[in-house]
C-alpha cells in the first residue's frame, strides 16, 4: 500500500483550521440582529465593529507572514487559534459597544488574520512543488466555505436557543482545532524527514533562520510592491473582490434577505449553499490556474460576479426562492475563485520567497474593500431603508475589476512552477 505523503496531512489540518477560523470570522452576520435586540446597539455601530475585524485580519496578513518566517508555522497557528478562542469566551461577558469593537473587531480580526490570508500560500509554498496550484485552490476554498457552511446551524441555535449557544458551539470548535494543530501540524517537510511533494531530489533544505524585525520585513515588502504596476492592479482588483464578497455578501446578505421577509435560517442556508459551491469553484480554479493564463481567469470571474450582483435585487424583489438558489449556486462558484490566479500572478511577478508577504499586502487591500462594504452597507441601509444601492454599486465595481486584470503583464507559465 502506497504511503500517504505527509504534505496531505498538513493540508488536511490546515484546511480544517481555515474552516474553523472562517466560521468564527463570518458568523458576525448571524449576530447583527440579536446584538441589536439585546443590547440596543445601532446597526452602524455593530457594522463598524465587524468592519474593524475585516480590516485588521487583512492588514495583519503580511505581518503574519513575517512572524511565520521567524517563529514558525505551527507556533503561529497555535497562537492565532488561541486568540480566537479567548475572544469567543469574552463575548459571553461583553456589555458595551467598545467591548464589541475590542473583541469582534480587534481580537477576532487579528486572530483570524493568519488563517484567512497568507496561510494557504505558506503551506503550498513549503509543502508542495507538484500540484501547488491545486493545493492553493483547496485551501483558499476553505476560507469561504468555512465562513459560510455552518451558518444555518448557527442561525438555528440563535432562533431556538440564544446567540450565546451559537457562540458556545464555535468556541468548542476552536478548542478542538487547537488540539489537532498541536498534534499533527508541522512547519516544514524536514520536521518529519521528508521533502515537499513532487520535489525531484531528496535533499531536505534547511528552513531559513530569520532574525530580522518582522515589522521591517513587512513594510519593506510593501514599499517594494508600491513601485510595481502589477501590485497596484492586483491590489485594486482584490479590493473589489473583498468589497463584493465578505464585506457585502458575507456581512449583509442575511439581513438583506430578512428585510424581504425571508426567514433567518433560510437566508443563512442560502449563504451556506454559496460556501458548498465555493469549495467546488475555488478548487477547480486552483486546477485551472496551473494550466491557463491567470489574467483571463480573473477577467471572467469578476465579470460574472458583477452580473450576478446586479441580478440579486431583481431576484429578491421577485420573491422567488428558485432565483435565489440559482444566484447562491452561481455566486458560490465564483466566491473566492479569484484567489488561486491572484496568488499565481503574485508568485510570477515577485518570486516564490516573496509571494506570501506580497499576497499578504494584496489581501490587505481585499480587506479594506471588505471593511468599506461592511460599514457602508449598514449606512446605506439606514439612509434608504434598503440594501439595493449597495449591491448595485458592488456589481458595477466588479465589472470595473474585470478590466483591471487585463492590464497585468502576460504571465510566463514557467515562472509559476
UniProtKB/TrEMBL annotation:
Keywords: Membrane, Transmembrane, Transmembrane helix, Transport. The chain crosses the membrane at residues 7-26, 46-71, 78-95, 101-121, 133-155, 161-184, 231-254, 260-284, 296-315, 321-346, 358-381, 387-408. InterPro entries: MFS, MFS_dom, MFS_trans_sf, Proton-linked_MCT. It is found in: Cell membrane. It holds the Pfam family MFS_1. The keyword Transport applies. One of its GO terms (molecular function) is transmembrane transporter activity. GO terms for cellular component: plasma membrane. It is a multi-pass membrane protein. Residues 10-413 form the Major facilitator superfamily (MFS) profile domain. This is Sugar phosphate permease.
Amino acid at each position: 500500500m502506497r504511503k500517504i505523503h505527509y504534505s496531505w496531512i498538513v493540508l488536511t489540518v490546515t484546511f480544517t483550521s481555515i474552516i474553523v477560523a472562517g466560521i468564527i470570522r463570518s458568523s458576525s452576520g448571524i449576530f447583527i440582529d440579536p446584538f441589536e435586540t439585546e443590547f440596543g446597539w445601532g446597526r452602524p455601530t455593530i457594522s463598524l465593529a465587524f468592519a474593524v475585524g475585516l480590516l485588521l485580519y487583512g492588514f495583519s496578513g503580511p505581518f503574519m507572514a513575517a512572524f511565520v518566517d521567524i517563529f514558525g508555522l505551527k507556533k503561529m497557528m497555535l497562537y492565532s487559534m488561541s486568540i480566537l478562542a479567548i475572544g469567543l469566551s469574552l463575548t459571553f461577558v461583553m456589555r458595551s459597544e467598545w467591548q464589541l469593537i475590542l473583541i469582534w473587531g480587534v481580537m477576532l480580526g487579528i486572530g483570524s488574520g493568519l488563517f484567512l490570508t497568507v496561510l494557504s500560500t505558506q503551506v503550498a509554498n513549503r509543502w508542495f512543488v507538484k500540484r501547488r496550484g491545486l493545493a492553493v485552490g483547496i485551501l483558499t476554498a476553505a476560507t469561504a466555505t468555512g465562513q459560510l457552511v455552518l451558518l444555518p446551524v448557527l442561525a438555528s441555535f440563535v432562533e431556538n436557543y440564544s446567540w450565546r449557544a451559537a457562540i458556545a458551539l464555535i468556541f468548542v470548535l476552536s478548542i478542538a482545532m487547537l488540539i489537532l494543530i498541536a498534534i499533527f501540524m508541522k512547519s516544514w517537510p524536514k520536521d518529519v524527514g521528508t521533502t515537499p511533494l513532487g520535489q525531484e531530489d531528496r535533499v531536505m533544505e534547511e528552513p531559513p533562520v530569520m532574525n530580522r524585525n518582522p515589522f521591517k520585513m513587512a513594510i519593506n515588502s510593501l514599499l517594494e510592491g508600491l513601485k510595481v504596476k502589477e501590485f497596484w492592479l492586483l491590489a485594486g482588483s482584490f479590493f473589489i473582490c473583498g468589497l463584493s464578497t465578505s464585506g457585502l455578501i458575507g456581512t449583509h446578505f442575511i439581513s438583506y434577505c430578512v428585510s424581504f421577509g425571508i426567514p433567518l435560517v433560510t437566508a443563512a442556508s442560502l449563504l451556506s449553499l454559496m460556501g458548498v459551491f465555493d469549495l467546488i469553484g475555488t478548487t477547480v480554479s486552483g486546477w485551472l490556474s496551473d494550466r491557463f493564463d491567470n489574467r483571463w481567469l480573473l477577467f471572467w470571474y469578476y465579470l460574472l460576479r458583477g452580473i450576478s450582483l446586479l441580478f440579486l435585487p431583481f431576484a429578491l424583489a421577485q420573491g422567488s426562492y428558485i432565483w435565489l438558489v440559482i444566484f447562491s449556486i452561481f455566486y458560490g462558484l465564483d466566491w473566492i475563485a479569484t484567489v488561486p490566479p491572484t496568488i499565481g500572478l503574485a508568485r510570477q511577478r515577485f518570486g516564490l520567497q516573496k509571494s506570501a508577504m506580497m499576497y499578504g499586502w494584496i489581501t490587505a487591500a481585499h480587506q479594506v474593500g471588505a471593511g468599506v462594504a461592511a460599514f457602508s452597507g449598514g449606512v446605506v441601509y439606514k439612509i434608504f431603508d434598503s440594501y439595493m444601492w449597495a449591491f448595485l454599486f458592488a456589481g458595477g465595481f466588479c465589472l470595473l475589476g474585470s478590466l483591471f486584470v487585463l492590464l497585468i503583464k502576460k504571465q510566463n507559465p514557467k515562472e509559476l512552477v
